[in-house]
Amino acid sequence: MPATASDGSPDVGRINDFDDARKEDRGMTETVGGSSKKTATRNGAGDKRLAVQRVYTTEGVHPYDEVTWERRDVVMTNWRDGSINFEQRGVEFPDFWSVNATNIVTSKYFRGAVGTPQREHSLRQLIDRVVKTYTEAGVKHGYFSTDQDAAVFEHELTWMLLHQVFSFNSPVWFNVGTSSPQQVSACFILAVDDTMESILNWYREEGLIFKGGSGAGLNLSRIRSSKELLSSGGTASGPVSFMRGADASAGTIKSGGATRRAAKMVVLDVDHPDVEEFIETKAREEDKVRALRDAGFDMDLGGRDIVSVQYQNANNSIRVSDEFMHSYENGGRFGLRARQTGEVIEQIDAKGLFRKLAKAAWECADPGIQYDGTINDWHTTPESGRITASNPCSEYMHLDNSSCNLASLNLMKFLQDDGQFNADLFAKSVELVITAMEISISFADFPTEPIAETTRKFRQLGIGYANLGALLMATGHAYDSEGGRALAAAITSLMQAVAYKRSAELAGIVGPYEGYARNAEAHQRVIRKHAAANDLIRTYHANDVAVHKVATRAWQEGIQVGAKNGWRNAQASVLAPTGTIGLMMDCDTTGIEPDLALVKFKKLVGGGSMQIVNQTVPRALKSLGYQDEQVEAIVEFIGEHGHVVDAPGLKLEHYEVFDCAMGDRSIAPMGHVRMMAAVQPFISGAISKTVNMPETATVEEVEEIYYQGWKLGLKALAIYRDNCKVGQPLSAGKSAKSSSETKTETVVEYRPVRKRLPKKRPSQTVSFTVGGAEGYLHAGSYPDDGLGEIFVKLGKQGSTLAGVMDAFSMSISVGLQYGIPLEFYVSKFQNLRFEPAGMTDDPDVRIATSVLDYLFRRLALDYLPFEKRSQLGIFTADERTAQVNENYGSGDVDLEGLRTSVDSTPKAAVEEKKKPQDIQVGSSTELLELHLGTTADAPLCMTCGTKMRPAGSCYLCEGCGSTSGCS
Fold it and tell me: Where in this chain does the record put each TSCPD domain (predicted)?
């Protein structure tokens, strides 16, 4: 175990004698001499090797022999039409692996043609193919002390993968141990210069990376703007023009690989003269989408006409400098600079440009923002170049023409039955995983030689984790709470400390990374910044206190070893989306994300599916002190309603523990930002996460989120406002309509014709009282008895209220005459809450939450047929009375009390609605929609048709494991 004093605090004397402490460590330690398998070492590191001791495994017992294996049939169908997408029968998996994880691994990661002897059919084959390659490379390149150490390493890695403790990123499973190039990296950063040769090479390199199933990002700021001249005297095209060609290329290749669609990031510096054009590019294209949709074209995501829209295959980001942000704060002007000379060619208002950035993001979710000052302040190798770009999901940020291989740990695997997070076991696991990741660079292949050269020279790694949201809930922490952020920060700090400590130990074995000597001072400065941030963590509970103590000790030891050996890796960690690999590990939540919802979709052995309450919920309730009977009742309530509001026996102060990313109690946007800020100081790269905002969010709120991201020290931030994009899938009900119905609706909705009332028309006037406020409703009808106009008298003549009601009445009347259905208005205005509200003098509507609530309920009762009112939950007093008598007889029933219930619904009307369990769903997102009656902004999977769910800044399909980005 790491050195501690008897009271559990760091023992300074033993920390100073680090070599002795390290030898006593039960995990992987380095030894000097005694190697039975000596090979040449690099950079004059000497003949040290890595001695590996067991953590998970038992000597003499193979990990495969400790589990029960079973045969399963994997048959994956398109949820929409039932067609079979993939079929492989008789695959072998441990009995504790879920059906979903089995399906994902079999369809995505097994190699060989289906139906041939070469096709992999067992998880053993997959793990052996990868782990044995890593072990052989470790032996070949001189990492291990003895053959026995290599064997222990192989068994430990196998056990962790078998038990879903961690997973490598997808390219490892695709490529390692096969005849394909041994590409292990998921994230790439390219470079482009201001020459046509470089621009065309950019297209080529991106295509090669997309073909391999990975994503790439780059910064276009070196390309001259459209406001500058070429050497020939003509005007330059500008980067936005060249983006068009790259976008078309990505759109062509997006389905070319067998793994995922193309993913790319395009970055532009805020001082580029074309920055305004870049900011508005995708927003203008969204206007085009709306116009084409209104003209009747198929502009839904995946529609046949959406391909005519440009710039949709990339995430766009603006790289803002601290200078610009200070100008924004002070209301000053900011200079846009020529690319070749650096001279200021235009002065702009910083606040105005920042508002345009926020407005564009509000309209279409692009561009995101990257904070250049923060990024490069935490840069370990500034002498070798600045960090100018990121990968598509914004978690990997380092030098141009470089790559990063990722691996993520499943945090729930370290939560003990007593509710304590096992920090020591987590540290041992990080040591093992980071060692394997480092070994992989020794044998990896790369798509281009510049990327290969940079990656081998700086050896960037990206260890991270998944299931943070589930861990916080299981330990009784609200995601948006000080305690939740403290635990997340402590765990992330521990991961980073141990990763860099192990990197320093590896540097003593095989030497530091090649670029270290030139950047030693800067690298050490960043390490000290991480350690200083660890000292600032404020702890609240036993869990974060214990984890923080282990992290502090790891930082102290790691700094000592690094000062002596240097570090083997220029960076160690990122927080990736963990999309497909999150499903492989059976994680409830991905990356740094909170839980999506409290109910989820689960596949069953033999086919079929069911909805369940997340298993994290009962564990959280027990950690909060609830008894088994209370837990059972609360879980049953959540299963029926999809939320915890009014759950029997649940204390109000515990509601926040069960807040999710979506739903009735969704986490506020700043809650996501604060969590990112808590863990960012302990991440070498950045965090893949999109901050979801409600549809009602304003441009000013988006602007504030982007500003706070800079103030809180984030490296990158992106937002998504619900329903801001037109190209979203229709819900099941809408998509089921025939093409003829769609055309009819299009004519009515987008080419309306006003049908005026005749001079003489029937009408009625209703006097009403709502909460003591008196008024009159006058309704005029067409001769065929359809409502055509309303006039509302409320307030004294000439008052502001009377004028507003007159204007409101005219707008509703004109809308009715243009064909807007009355039931649409009723659905929008009923249940609106504002004063005056309360009791009314109408026997059919006894209580109203506002005047508008009463008016539209009254109109519905007078002008809508029973069938439509049933769907809206609006009934007359006689209808409610008749239904009560039918169901309960004329016994002692409080009929008057039932009449006063605004939302009381006859049983017949309820039975007309489908029960949740009677409606087929294909994903957790669709299940959430079923409970909440809303449509989530997520695309349909291009492979199986299931609605995807958010995963970091990407989307993930729970049906087949496809992602829209890197994992």
Answer: 758-862
